[in-house]
């Protein structure tokens, strides 16, 4: 449904609907901009992406892990972790090893460079959101979940891989 400016002058209900739609779009843009700014700063200051920092911080918190566990803690697919680990390994921040009797089992661990970054890097952007969500009631969090599901449903992005 499109709303023209002449419609807004005649129907106050449509004006409220248009105003709230603009506010939703504006808020989504602010989220995207905050994420892009955070990623640019990480790249500029530490030469890593947000996903790479998330991987490093996961390994700092849980120690050496197989890629499937890294993916679980990062809340991404294993295929995403493979690419992230490839890039971190080429930067000398992580290494893959086969320490198990089953040589097929690979674990990822931080190198000295990766540990240093983990100690000095800023918290991931989602940590601010996590901290804020902890302050909300279960009902408020459920409302946010429902609203986000509606929005992702409109974009048909529920099944996209999160990086």
Automatic annotation (TrEMBL):
<keyword id="KW-0238">DNA-binding</keyword>
<dbReference type="InterPro" id="IPR000835">
    <property type="entry name" value="HTH_MarR-typ"/>
</dbReference>
<keyword id="KW-0804">Transcription</keyword>
<dbReference type="InterPro" id="IPR036390">
    <property type="entry name" value="WH_DNA-bd_sf"/>
</dbReference>
<keyword id="KW-0805">Transcription regulation</keyword>
<dbReference type="InterPro" id="IPR036388">
    <property type="entry name" value="WH-like_DNA-bd_sf"/>
</dbReference>
<feature type="domain" description="HTH marR-type">
    <location>
        <begin position="21"/>
        <end position="153"/>
    </location>
</feature>
<dbReference type="Pfam" id="PF01047">
    <property type="entry name" value="MarR"/>
</dbReference>
<protein>
    <submittedName>
        <fullName>MarR family transcriptional regulator</fullName>
    </submittedName>
</protein>
<dbReference type="GO" id="GO:0003677">
    <property type="term" value="F:DNA binding"/>
</dbReference>
<dbReference type="GO" id="GO:0003700">
    <property type="term" value="F:DNA-binding transcription factor activity"/>
</dbReference>
């Amino acid at each position: 449904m499109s709303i023209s400016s002449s419609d807004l002058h005649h129907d106050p209900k449509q004006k409220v609907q248009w105003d709230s739609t603009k506010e939703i779009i504006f808020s989504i843009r602010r989220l995207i901009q905050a994420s892009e700014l955070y990623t640019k700063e990480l790249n500029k200051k530490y030469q890593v992406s947000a996903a790479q920092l998330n991987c490093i911080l996961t390994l700092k918190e849980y120690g050496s892990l197989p890629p499937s566990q890294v993916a679980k803690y990062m809340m991404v697919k294993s295929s995403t972790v493979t690419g992230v680990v490839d890039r971190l390994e080429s930067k000398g921040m992580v290494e893959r090893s086969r320490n198990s009797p089953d040589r097929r089992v690979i674990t990822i661990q931080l190198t000295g460079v990766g540990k240093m970054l983990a100690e000095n890097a800023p918290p991931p952007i989602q940590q601010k959101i996590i901290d804020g969500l902890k302050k909300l009631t279960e009902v408020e969090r459920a409302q946010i979940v429902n609203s986000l599901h509606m929005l992702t449903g409109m974009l048909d992005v529920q099944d996209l891989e999160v990086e």
